[in-house]
Design brief:
The chain has a domain of 215 residues: 3-Layer(aba) Sandwich (Aminopeptidase). The chain is 38% helix and 20% strand. The protein is built from 10 helices and 15 strands. It starts with a helix and ends in a 7-residue tail after the last helix. The N terminus and C terminus are likely disordered.
């Protein structure tokens, strides 16, 4: 009788453990979001500007959603998210990019991907999408900024929204950018195709990697490459390796912005003012006033030529893992660990959560 009893006990133990195992698969781990009053104040002299790039070439701003939540079409994704941080105290310029499939908690408590604040596909979750349908684009953009703040313990106030066409126009306005690409990236751009005049030297069959001067169109296509590894580069954790998928895309975004900054290191006030006019005429939406832009221009002129540092969230060396939640391919991340890395990168200190 001992064997049947042992088997019975084992079965009971297995069944008793089953609910907790199933529960762990019911949803993502809790995200430690912070209320505005609990966030670390931005140190004096530091300014944040969030750049939001929409996954479309031409986007028309909506004042209010008109789609029914059961309409299976979607509007667009906020795939490009880069925080520009300017520090007057030490003269530094820092770029922080956020991967597009990061799992976040919306303001209504629902979970979703960070790039889905304008998404209207109900096949994943109806709660979050119903919240989206009640919001105008402007409200959704602000909610995206608020979510980044609550997840990363930041106080970003100013943001600019652009689509691919507008990014292209701005890069063309400065005369293009110089970007170093790999052999595989050169072949990818040639096969796209981007056109013979899109780069100097012109990409041809068999062209190899190297530094190419890119027009705005070529630069945007380069920024969108996802399924090819980047060149190996030094990461924040001290290792040197390549990135691919969304990690590679965020790296390419940062490289184009860095190249853009490098091209303006000797810019004159007159040319900078003309470029500001181009930026003002190439935005989908912004909460920045003309005065805000003028102040940002003054900062940029004071720091032109400063080396640009960059980091990605989630950061190398922190915990993050693949997660299939409600039909979405997402990545859950260790927000506490990434907050510490980000604060050390941006401010030179780490916030200790008590």
């Amino acid at each position: 009788m001992k064997k049947p009893v042992a088997l019975l006990l084992a079965l009971v133990c297995l069944l008793s453990a089953l609910p907790s195992a199933l529960a762990s698969q019911e949803g993502p781990q809790p995200i430690p979001v912070l209320a505005p009053e609990d966030r670390t104040p931005t140190p004096p002299g530091i300014h944040h500007y969030l750049l939001i790039c929409l996954d479309k070439w031409d986007y028309t701003l909506r004042n209010q959603w008109v789609k029914d939540i059961w309409d299976e079409t979607y509007d667009t994704n906020t795939d490009g998210l880069i925080l520009v941080t300017v520090n007057e105290n030490d003269g530094s310029v820092k770029l922080t990019s956020f991967i597009r499939d990061m799992l976040i908690q919306r303001p209504d408590g629902e979970y979703g991907r960070i790039n889905n604040f304008l998404y209207a596909n109900p096949t994943t979750q109806t709660g979050g999408w119903a919240w989206v349908n009640k919001k105008s684009d402007a409200e959704a953009f602000q909610a995206l900024v608020d979510t980044i703040n609550s997840h990363f313990d930041l106080n970003i106030e100013k943001f600019i929204v652009m689509d691919f066409r507008q990014v292209q126009n701005i890069i063309d306005a400065v005369g293009g950018v110089d970007v170093e690409i790999t052999n595989r990236e050169a072949r990818k751009l040639f096969l796209y195709p981007i056109g013979a005049s899109a780069t100097v030297p012109s990409l041809q069959e068999g062209s190899r990697g190297g530094v190419y001067h890119m027009t705005g169109y070529a630069a945007v296509i380069y920024m969108r490459i996802r399924k090819i590894e980047t060149k190996a580069y030094l990461h924040a954790d001290g290792t040197t390796h390549s990135d691919n998928q969304d990690y590679g895309r965020t790296y390419r975004d940062r490289m184009v912005l860095t190249a853009l900054a490098d091209s303006l290191k000797d810019v004159t006030w007159d040319r900078a003012a003309a470029l500001l006019d181009v930026i003002l005429s190439n935005t989908v939406y912004t909460n920045m006033t003309t005065r805000d832009f003028e102040e940002a221009l003054t900062l940029a002129m004071a720091l032109r030529g400063a080396p640009v540092q960059h980091i990605r969230m989630p950061a190398d060396g922190t915990k993050y893992w693949e997660s299939g939640y409600a039909g979405m391919a997402t990545k859950e991340i260790d927000y506490l660990g990434n907050r510490a890395v980000l604060h050390d990168f941006l401010f030179g200190f780490t916030v200790v959560d008590e």
